[in-house]
Design goal:
Elements: E1 7-8, E2 17-21, H1 26-42, E3 55-58, H2 64-75, E4 78-81, E5 87-91, E6 100-102, H3 107-117, E7 123-127, H4 138-146, E8 150-152, E9 158-161, E10 169-173, H5 180-189, E11 196-200, H6 208-220, E12 225-226, E13 232-235, E14 244-246, H7 251-264, E15 267-271, H8 281-289, E16 294-297, E17 301-305, E18 314-316, H9 324-332, E19 339-343, H10 355-365, E20 369-373, E21 376-380, E22 387-389, H11 395-407, E23 411-413, H12 426-434, E24 450-453
Parallel strand pairs: 2-15, 2-24, 3-14, 6-7, 10-11, 18-19, 22-23
Antiparallel strand pairs: 1-23, 3-5, 4-5, 7-9, 8-9, 11-13, 12-13, 15-17, 16-17, 19-21, 20-21
């Protein structure tokens, strides 16, 4: 990503009223792609399928992270066809000599693909962006070594020397730095000769709902998973079925738009919000319950209505650490003098950037009061001033800057292009959300939320 896409965040003094459609979930898309690749490699398909092993994915997100996953599968010899959000996956795992997977800054590629590469009959090299080279990966590589996989290197760049199979068995891993270590092992476990039992041995797991998503999707693909014992997952060896995956809207990306309703005292509706979700929807709604907001959910949308203001709040974000930048922006814009405490997020120091240090630096740069704690942030809301908000090549940081800029005129996000990681349409969606607002708009008028829809452009592969 360029780091040169400077963007003056749109500002309004009026309540925001909009209906927003966000594209598919990155987490679900990349899991579906990997499971589809495993099904293709096994050559199994649903009854009556004309091409055994071919899966279809509808509603797939197209972003840098998902295109990196598509590129990784193709590097391993699989075929991923289709345009925009409709994809098919087929073929076999057969990488060419000199195969190299580009992880970019995508944690799902970095941590989900090495176990898949271990099933190849040849070596596959892994590398990525400079920032990715400091992201935690050693526990996963050590777990693969314990399962008999030859790994050259302890971090990016590294090489997986596949032999065509992995014995499986039981492996212990400290996944306190990233739940993706567990998900990466589980996703491929049914293709290991003896299946796999994963035992988490460290402190409390972060982002546990994402492991739950992995388990649900494995079961949807016909894989037997026993997660009845806390911190232990047992996957039986067997078939991964080809199927039609339907991807939900990305609820985490929707949070920034819902935050616009809260900070402006307006109303934002997200279309397609699932009545039941594989994503941590309940955890997201719990956050908005702390913000003096009215939440209305139906079978087809979620609507958040902000009030005239809200005080500071305490929230444990261990399960949904990816919400932290948006929640920190909400805390910084709370009633002046109120204090918010965000906890359970020490692991964010190993994300795309050190998000705790980045948020503290950027909020304080604008005149705020944000202090790091051992496992989070304490933010005292103070009037903010215009200035540059640095994104650190981190999509969530860029979105947080947009939230701040909505209420603070003259905030400039230094790299809005960072949002291409999971939501390339973010600047257009944000602008469309505000397009019809003017200083005379009234929170109680306007005939309901205005519509802002994702622009359907096919990114390059």
């Amino acid at each position: 990503m360029s780091g040169t896409d400077s963007w003056t965040a749109p500002h309004t003094t009026a309540p925001v009223h909009a209906t927003v459609t966000v594209p598919g979930s990155k987490s679900q898309t990349n899991r579906a792609l990997l499971l589809a690749g495993l099904a293709a490699a096994q050559g199994l398909g649903p009854p009556g399928s004309p091409r055994g092993g071919t899966s279809r994915i509808s509603g797939a997100l197209r972003s840098r992270d998902t295109d990196l996953m598509i590129g990784a599968l193709r590097t391993l010899g699989l075929s991923v066809d289709g345009a925009k959000s409709e994809l098919t996956v087929s073929g076999r795992i057969a990488p060419e000599p000199g195969a190299r997977v580009d992880c970019g800054l995508a944690g799902t590629v970095l941590r989900f693909v090495p176990p898949l590469a271990a099933l190849a009959h040849s070596a596959v090299d892994f590398d990525g962006d400079e920032q990715a080279r400091v992201r935690p990966i050693a526990p996963l590589l050590d777990a693969l070594r314990a399962l008999g996989v030859r790994i050259d290197g302890t971090g990016l760049p590294f090489r997986v020397q596949g032999t065509g199979s992995v014995a499986g068995g039981t492996v212990a891993i400290d996944a306190s730095a990233s739940s993706q270590f567990v998900s990466g092992l589980l996703l491929c476990a049914a293709s290991f000769t003896d299946g796999l039992t994963v035992q988490h041995t460290g402190p409390a797991l972060p982002s546990a709902p994402h492991i739950a998503m992995t388990v649900v999707m494995l079961r949807q693909a016909g894989v037997e998973v026993d997660d009845s014992v806390p911190n232990r997952w047992q996957v039986r060896a067997g078939a991964v079925a080809a199927r039609h995956w339907e991807v939900e809207p990305d609820l985490t990306n929707a949070v920034a738009f819902l935050a616009a309703a809260v900070v402006s005292g307006g109303t934002v509706r997200i279309t397609g919000w699932p009545a039941t979700s594989v994503q941590p929807a309940d955890n997201i709604l719990d956050v908005f319950a702390k913000l003096n907001a009215v939440v209305n959910q139906t079978d087809s949308f979620l609507e958040v209505q902000g009030s005239a203001g809200y005080d500071g709040f305490d929230v444990d974000l261990r399960a949904v650490g990816e919400l932290t930048p948006s929640v920190a922006a909400l805390a910084a814009l709370a009633s002046p003098g109120s204090v918010s405490r965000l906890s359970g997020i020490a692991h964010l120091r190993g994300h795309e950037t050190d998000r705790l240090a980045a948020l503290s630096t950027e909020i304080n740069r604008l005149g705020g009061n944000c202090a790091e704690t051992p496992d989070g942030l304490v933010i005292t809301a103070t009037p903010l001033r215009p200035g540059i908000w640095r994104a650190y090549a981190d999509h969530r940081m860029a979105m947080a800057g947009a939230i701040i800029g909505l209420r603070v005129a003259g905030v400039q996000v230094d790299d809005i292009g960072a949002t291409t990681k999971t939501l390339p349409e973010f600047p257009q969606l944000w602008a469309r959300m505000l397009a019809d607002l003017g200083p005379g708009d009234d929170a109680g008028r306007g005939g309901g939320p205005r519509r802002s829809r994702a622009i359907e452009e096919e990114p390059s592969l």
